[in-house]
Amino acid sequence: MKTTQAAVVGCGAIHTLHVEAIQSNPACRLRAIVETDSAKGHLLAERYACRYYADYREMLCDTEIDVVHVCTPHVAHKEVILAALAAGKHVFTEKPVALNPGEVKDIKAALKHATSQLGVCYQNRLNPSSQKIKSLLEANTYGKVLSIKAVLTWNRTQEYYAQSPWRGRFATEGGSLLINQAIHTLDLMQWFAGGVESVKGVVESSFLSNATQAEDTAMANMQLANGVRGIFYATNCHTTDSPLFLEIHCEEGLLQLHHNNLWFIAGEEKNLLACDEIPREVQKCYWGSSHQQAINNFYHSLHIPDNHNYVDIYQAETSLRMVEAIYQSSITRNWIKI
After folding, report:
1. Residue 35 in contact with residue 54, Cβ under 8 Å?
2. Cα(312)–Cα(318) distance, rounded to whole angstroms?
3. 257 by DSSP, 3-state: which?
4. Can you state the angle between helices 77-86 and 101-113, rounded to 10 degrees?
5. How far is it, in rounded angstroms, from Cα 65 to Cα 29?
6. Considering only CA atoms, which of 67, 73, 68, 21 is closest in space to residue 48?
7. How many CA atoms lie within 13 A of 292 on its CB side?
8. pLDDT digits over 105-145, tens only?
9. Residue 262 bridge partners (DSSP)
10. pTM of the model
């Protein structure tokens, strides 16, 4: 099998997970990085033993590059994705795939004429607890799902936003808490339920109102698929980063994800079903530890016809529409159909 050669565009905090996944895959090679900060870019290129480009458009002229990883600020996702697809490159992008559903429409139109594939990084679907939940629900192991509750309480500081001025702005991030930190949770909720029908929610800016133009806290009720009720709360105003708390009420008991352990609780009975691996210290423990698997799945799918083992734009679009619906509902105070 031909070695797959990759380029990583954008060298912020998340790019290291992509580089590590590429370098640990014997069938892949990191050929180039793209970074607008030339000093940083040259330093990283020397560290990774790869080429350095200051402009992604120059990188796209390299015919040896097969896959482009998009790790830029959100505002650049659409531009880089469209250019890479036009150049015949496969694309694996960090979430969100775009700033809003309107940009997603443009990317979907481009994909209809592209010869390459686009994968989106929703790595938390691949956590052991997520995989276990999905299999149990699909098998109807504990009866009908009645509701799903998710609580996400993380810490983001004034300095976090000051260090990267694109954060916390609709024009450059597409929002704040919902589209960046909480979008994985929204994706898991709808994925477990089999989809989402409508949302009613509220966003608020409180402790971080001086740091962000958008929200630091959000809550929503959801009508998920198959009659499942969704209850959601998230904030960046906590003083620490707590792991996601997720509870699924089934007819026969509760599936509860707490401190990265998945339990089934029925009356006095409490059984441990799965445990998410604690990531290495260089990662954030509340991110999950499945970036490498998500990237490997995408690369594997490139070589096997009809093996669609990754999150595509159609799946990724749902959580982005949920984000948009919560923003809209917060203004209108109405239920918003997805």
Report:
1. yes
2. 11
3. strand
4. 10
5. 10
6. 21
7. 15
8. 999 999 999 999 999 999 999 999 999 999 999 999 999 99
9. 257, 274
10. 0.94
